[in-house]
Amino acid sequence: MEKPKPMLTMSQIMSKLADKGITNEFRMHENLQMILEGNEHAYQPEDLKILKTFRFEGDSSPEDNAVLYVAVDQKGNKGIIIDSYGAESNYPGEEFDNFLRNIPVDEDDEYNFY
Fold this sequence. Notes:
114 residues; alpha+beta; 3-stranded antiparallel sheet; 2 helices; 15% helix
């Protein structure tokens, strides 16, 4: 029987992504526009595609739960989107969650680090 591989932490995943050149983050600003670090272009959900989703759960606290998405825009610019979930989210209101739900998903095995 094959021993299961250990789960990676968020920092380990981010390090592996950085090795692939993915270091920027897509963030939703106070004005409810999603932008990529270093770029002021405001994205709509259909402008992006989610390539991989990683979920992390804290051992002792539900507040330690997070999701890291690897995303790409239509020009090939890649970045991450991080969302904590549970009792508290990084973004108040429903806009961020609605934005995420509307991003198309096309999982890419290149980012399967397990």
